């Protein structure tokens, strides 16, 4: 919960206990607390002051300087949260709380044009059966509240918008619905009022009307008037449930985060804390969410690159295996050629030797034909012959992976 101090009250608080203890109470680091002191020109005890004080030595306070122009006399400490956050997000939270310390939401006197247009639309809208007016229009604020809550929510929104400006965010109507943006991150949001549902208790008038209809039905049926078919509404003269707006409104950032889901997105009316007093807390939450979104996008991009690299490595391994398999098949063809050539050589040599000792015209003719085949086999199993084979089979060259198609998926 946000806390507010005057400058003199904060000065007394700073000199009442060590800064480390005070920072812990606020959920801040002592570095951030020192920054808030410097921002508001509030002196704090120097190093060793508390040790001398505890030892009973005489120590003096540094007087609170007069308020200078440009320094606020009000110090706001936005609510803190102890969460397991990435370093960049935790640092952004503290920086945002330091910036928020100089902003007093109650002193906002300007109205934002998008807030004005949205509230004007709501005031003209007709309440539904639950007593709510809704707005879901391009460029305007996404809101669902009761008419009685419009004035209070208008004040709250103008405070939130101004507090967001302190954090470097503007309310923009360029998207499908109004959202905060710092130029790099867009953070949509919505407001919704809670509705209480209860079982409807029929009024005396409703009961009398129902009884009158029942008697009418019985008279019709007593006269055998079977053409009379009562409508569904004839059996029920009151709604099943009653709806009553509670006046409790929630402000919720509608931002998906893959890695930082525990971050706070919702700010609700409570018994003590009301939405119009939570502008600084909401603006700090906005800055933290935007920082988390940037961190989220960075990690998502790293994961995407990592997944692509893993997919590339898997595809490359599949490609190399595909090439190796095709080369081994071509090697079988090479062995077939070489083995065939050697067999032909042996047969031709054997016949040549035998024909020297005998006359066999048909065998001689066969040998001539065989020698032509041996010559072709020799050419086919030479370097030139293998080159033709490799080119035809698309292996051992730049087209070694011909016919390979990488997987489109990461697995």
Question: In words, what does this structure look like?
Answer:
There is one protein chain. It contains 11 helices and 9 strands. Among the domains are: 1-77, no CATH class; 303-393, no CATH class. The mean pLDDT is 87. A hairpin with a 6-residue loop joins strand 5 and strand 6 (179-181). It has helices spanning 7-14, 19-26, 30-39, 49-54, 87-100, 113-124, 150-166, 204-222, 279-355, 361-380, 383-393; strands at 3-6, 74-77, 133-135, 142-145, 170-172, 179-181, 186-199, 241-253, 266-268.
Rg over CA atoms, rounded to whole Å, is: 43 Å
What's the rounded overall pLDDT mean?
87
Form type: elongated
Beta-strand portion reads 5-15%
Low-pLDDT stretches are none
Order of helices and strands, N to C?
A: EHHHHEHHEEHEEEHEEHHH
Count of individual helical segments: 11
Give the SSE map.
Elements: E1 3-6, H1 7-14, H2 19-26, H3 30-39, H4 49-54, E2 74-77, H5 87-100, H6 113-124, E3 133-135, E4 142-145, H7 150-166, E5 170-172, E6 179-181, E7 186-199, H8 204-222, E8 241-253, E9 266-268, H9 279-355, H10 361-380, H11 383-393
Parallel strand pairs: 4-7
Antiparallel strand pairs: 1-2, 3-4, 5-6, 6-7, 7-8, 8-9
């Amino acid at each position: 919960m946000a806390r507010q101090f005057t400058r003199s009250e904060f000065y007394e608080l700073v000199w009442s206990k060590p800064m480390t203890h005070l920072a812990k109470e606020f959920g801040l680091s002592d570095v951030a607390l020192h920054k808030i002191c410097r921002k508001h020109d509030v002196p704090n005890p120097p190093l060793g002051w508390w040790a001398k004080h505890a030892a009973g030595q005489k120590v003096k306070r540094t007087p609170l300087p007069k308020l200078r122009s440009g320094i606020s006399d009000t110090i706001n400490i936005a609510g803190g949260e102890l969460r397991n956050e990435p370093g960049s997000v935790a640092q952004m939270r503290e920086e945002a709380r330091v910036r928020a310390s100089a902003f007093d939401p109650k002193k906002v006197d300007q109205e934002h044009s998008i807030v004005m247009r949205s509230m004007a639309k709501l005031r003209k809208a007709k309440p539904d059966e639950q007593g709510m007016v809704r707005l879901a229009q391009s460029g305007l604020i996404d809101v669902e509240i009761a008419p009685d809550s419009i004035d209070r929510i208008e004040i709250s929104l103008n405070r939130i918008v101004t507090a967001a400006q302190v954090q470097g965010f503007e309310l923009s109507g360029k998207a499908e619905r109004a959202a905060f943006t710092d130029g790099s991150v867009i953070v949509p949001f919505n407001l919704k009022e809670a509705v209480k549902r209860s079982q409807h208790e029929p009024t005396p008038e409703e009961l009398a009307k129902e009884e009158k209809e029942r008697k009418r039905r019985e008279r019709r049926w007593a006269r055998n008037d079977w053409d009379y078919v009562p409508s569904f509404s004839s059996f029920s003269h009151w709604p099943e449930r009653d709806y009553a707006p509670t006046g409790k409104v929630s402000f919720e950032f509608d931002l998906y985060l893959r890695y930082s889901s525990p971050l706070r997105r919702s700010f609700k009316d409570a018994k003590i804390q009301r939405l119009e007093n939570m502008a600084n807390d909401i603006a700090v939450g906005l800055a933290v969410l935007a920082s988390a979104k940037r961190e989220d996008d960075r990690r998502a991009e790293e994961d995407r690159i990592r997944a692509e690299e893993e997919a590339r490595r898997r595809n490359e391994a599949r490609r190399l295996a595909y090439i190796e398999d095709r080369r081994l098949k071509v090697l079988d063809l090479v062995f077939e050629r070489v083995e065939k050539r050697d067999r032909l050589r042996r047969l031709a040599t054997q016949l040549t030797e035998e024909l020297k000792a005998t006359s066999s015209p048909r065998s001689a003719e066969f040998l001539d034909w065989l020698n032509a085949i041996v010559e072709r086999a020799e050419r086919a199993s030479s370097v030139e012959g293998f080159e033709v084979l490799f080119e035809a089979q698309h292996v051992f060259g730049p087209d070694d992976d011909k016919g390979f198609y990488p997987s489109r998926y990461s697995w």
